[in-house]
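TL;DR need structure tokens for one chain.
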Amino acid sequence: MNKRLLAILLISTISLAGCTTDPMWSRADANEFSDLIENNQDAFLIDARTQTEWEDDGHIEGATLIPHNNIKAQADDLPDDKEILILVYCRSGSRSQTASQSLLDLGYTNVVDLDSGIYGWKDAGYSVIYGA
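>> reply
TL;DR here they are.
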């Protein structure tokens, strides 16, 4: 095989190795997340923390509590529309990534997670509510 052809094949393979068709979720800071909530009234907002955290630390108004490890088990609680904007947050931004991946696994295509979690939300001056 000639060296030039080998070089072209090698470069093509390396270039394609970085390409992926796997869907990814987006991450947003508190300000971007707030804008998404405000500008997308039909968005589905998921709090991926535990019941205790929901009660003790408050939650973002309009959120539905679905702990990160229950996303697939509670699929019936999720919207039927797989293209709807789903906004996800947890305490600090870690568990929401797991929840976001679970949502992608279930076929949802428009998922954004709050990169700093509810801690960052509160630190940015946004309010939470307590109770149901």
